[in-house]
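Q: What would this complex look like in 3D?
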Amino acid sequence: MASNFRPLDPETIARIREAVAPASVIEDRDKREPFGRDGTVEAFAMPELVVEATSAVQICALLKLANELRFPVTPRGLGTGLAGGAVPIHGGVLLSLAKMNRILTIDRDNFLAVVEPGVLNKDLKDAAREAGLYYPPDPASYDTCSIGGNAATNAGGPSCVKYGVTREYILGLEAVLPTGELIRTGVRTRKGVVGYDLTRLLVGSEGTLGVITQLVLKLIPHPPAITTLVALCPSLSSAMEAIRAVLGAGYVPCVVEFLDRHCLDLVGDLLPFEGVRDADAFLLIETDGAPEIIAREIEAIGEICLGSGADQVLLAPDARRRDRMWDVRKAVSLRIEERYPLDVHEDIVVPIRCIADFVRKLPPLEAAYGMKIFTFGHAGDGNLHLSMTAETREARERIERGIEEILKLVLGMGGTISGEHGIGMMKSKYLSLELSPESIRLQRRIKALFDPQGILNPGKVFSPLP
Ligand SMILES: Cc1cc2nc3c(=O)[nH]c(=O)nc-3n(C[C@H](O)[C@H](O)[C@H](O)COP(=O)(O)OP(=O)(O)OC[C@H]3O[C@@H](n4cnc5c(N)ncnc54)[C@H](O)[C@@H]3O)c2cc1C
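A: Here is my prediction, written as structure tokens for the whole assembly.
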């Protein structure tokens, strides 16, 4: 990618070492290399220098210097992002937050946690659990991604259908602005409406408006029990109708995941159930709460699934089979990646009433563009993961035309082109399909206000100006 930044010269590197302390700087090429990619298989760019931050003070010093000498800085949590957001496409400094990984407070009385950005999502969940509390946001990558990365991407996950996305759990932030100033946003209380909501502006800004250095998070009481149901359905659209009927009847499951026929072909052999071979779609529904209530709920949900055409419903599989199902659900992306030379991933959202209609429109598009579309994910909130695959990498251009048609279909139904992975570098070319020129202009002005020199995570979210 053409860059209007100059490569870091020895004098600049010396100034960076002085500003952040030499022990935090990685210059060795082999050690820098792993920081050049994230979870997006195909995106890579070598950082010229890696800084492993251990404090906000260091980050302030680094960003002040970046403004003075004008070099790019790309923040990185644990590098599991799926939009290339942490890939340093303009070189410069890759700023890793992985070492800022302390849980500073779990406050039982006020139901909140204060954490550094590099804390693993799973570690926070576990620490909250020990205190009888619950931190709901649960991206499928929860055991490999950071809370700071979750905030920067406003991550979602299976439990969003009941508990909402990361944004709902962030009460306040500490962040270093691209100009090097440290700010605190939001509150440590349940309510607070003073001034513009800068917390919400930073959340989901994909490392383009500030570097998050501390988070104040809302916790809730841990649900006492959870119960699971599996439904095997004769078609994907009948599975989606079943979900609509469950939600329409007023039930609020904490998980509504699904796999389509193509996914079952790849991972069905791993599922611990009979009858998977004959099913066209697999539904996994969970409810949590008081044991006697969820037992009644899950039974009623099973009845609704059968009434909507499910061939088979299995209530409350034992813990071993439940764990197995989650492993299988996670194995889907991996198997697709292993099997297909070309695999382009989208995570669209359509309104719940449109899910069945949307999936019915996919087979003709598969035929028209010569691709196989694997569909799976969080059906309860309309967030469908689509893996568009082909047998050769040369099919990319054709598939991208197909993707554009799918994204237009999604938008025509009132949906959105990304439910959780964000725009990063991979989807910036599609931004104008969803946002008006006025909205993009305003967002660019916000970016320029925060980052007048354009040094923080350049080249992300917005495509280059023509
Ligand atoms: C197997 C797998 C499953 C996944 N499942 C889900 C899912 O269910 N839901 C979901 O939402 N995502 C999912 N993801 C995507 C990814 O895990 C999330 O986007 C996650 O929030 C990224 O966290 P990270 O620490 O890896 O961030 P990174 O990948 O390191 O960075 C992501 C973005 O955030 C910015 N950033 C990171 N830390 C900071 C910080 N402290 N301050 C400012 N900016 C920062 C980066 O610049 C980049 O733009 C999945 C990924 C994989 C590989």
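A: To summarize the key features: The chain has four domains: 10-98, 103-221, 224-337, 340-454. The chain has a mean pLDDT of 95.
Q: Very helpful, thank you.
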